[in-house]
Amino acid sequence: MNDFTVVFLIALAASTGIEYWLSRRQADHVSRHRTAVPEAFRASVSLEAHQKAAAYTLDKLRLANVDRVLGVAVLLLFTLGGGIGWLQGLWAGLGLSSRLAGIALILSVLLLMQLIELPMSLYQTFVIEERHGFNRNTPAQFTKDLFMQTLLSLAIGAPLLALVLWVMDSSGSYWWLLAWAILIGFSIVMSWAYPTLIAPLFNKFTPLPDATLRQRIEALLKRCGFHSQGIFVMDGSRRSGHGNAYFTGIGDSKRIVFFDTLVDSLQHDELEAVLAHELGHFKRRHVVKMLVANSTLMLIGFALLGWLSQQAWFYQGLGVHEPSPAAALLLFMLVMPVFTVFLKPLMAFFQRRYEFEADDFAAAHTQARHLVNALVKLYRENASTLTPDPLYAAFHYSHPPAAIRIDHLNARPG
């Protein structure tokens, strides 16, 4: 056991302990407040709905704790347990070239991890979501989705992985800079391709049929100076009762998407306010800012990987005795979340600030009370807890807690 093994185990124990402690705080806080609806929501959320949200939150927390323990066990099995080293020897023993063996190593580990996680996904969908009235999926649809996702991941990911490994092998000590540029380019291409080529493989997108609503939305887009290639309704109800809305795509593939469940549950002025909030993210350049931040973190990560891949202690400290580009990339992908978990509160802070700015934009271009009404309906119908633990929320929530967000909007005119 070298020094890096000790550092890794300490970081793993610390990150896992902090996550469990935060989860315990969240469960205790939600349980203590489940008997009474917060005063600000008593006129719009029933005690029954509030208690349903508490039960749903607690069920998800329990599953997350089990999944966390499983994740730690799998990580230790593949690293210090020798799993990666064994698989690396297995593929090399088949006479494959070093690059093909590297591709096979990474894909086989990722596929095995997906297989190990499958029971958790099944339980989430067909037990927890079913218990709380959200699941509309079927075993046949679930299987079809899983097959399609795996096939697409292999079809898209394998060539990309082959290119990155080739760069690692052939581009000298600054290979990480070229690899970073390739992945940034890939992300941009996928942002363009996803809405028009990939998403329709899983869901049906139809132009918004409500002419009155479409006219209101087009007028809002014009006021905000936003152009899209269409307003679509997605058949999200095929799989879930949860509602959502989002922008997707870049350039000519830019489009606005409403879940059909959202269209069915909100009034026109509420849908307009929700859309205005999403427009706020675009107009305040949040997407660009997050892209720059993520690209910068990715560049730092690749630079770190470029250095670590040259250090024998990195491989040996994680149970791998035959250094290779594939092993370096795989180990980095597996262990970095252990160390970067401490960045979560910082990232969540900026995301919540962006949500406030988007809310302000929506209030300026529609009416704050319409967005408040929409949010309350979404909290209620998605069984989102109204009483999260403040520390848990600060660490995990990308959106401000319900009460804080509503207070912020109610303080504005309109």
Question: What topology does this entry show?
Answer:
Layout: H1 3-32, H2 47-78, H3 83-92, H4 98-131, H5 139-170, H6 175-198, E1 205-207, H7 211-224, E2 231-234, E3 245-248, E4 255-259, H8 260-265, H9 268-283, H10 286-308, H11 312-316, H12 325-340, H13 344-365, H14 368-381, H15 390-396, H16 402-410
Parallel strand pairs: 2-4
Antiparallel strand pairs: 1-2, 3-4
Quick rundown:
The chain is mainly alpha-helical.
Polypeptide structure, described:
With 414 residues, the chain is mostly helical. The protein has one domain (1-162, 262-267, 276-414). The protein contains 16 helices and 4 strands. A 4-stranded mixed β-sheet has the order 1-2-4-3. Strand 3 and strand 4 (255-259) form a beta hairpin. Helix 3 packs across helix 4 (98-131) and helix 9 (268-283) crosses helix 14 (368-381). The radius of gyration is 23 Å and the shape is globular. The N and C termini lie far apart (64 Å).
DSSP summary: helix tally: 16
The percentage helix is over 70%
Radius of gyration: 23 Å
Largest beta sheet: strand ordering: 1-2-4-3
Question: What is the count of β-strands?
Answer: 4
Low-confidence stretches: none
Provide the descriptors you would attach to this structure in a database record.
414 residues, mainly alpha, 4 strands, 71% helix, 4% strand
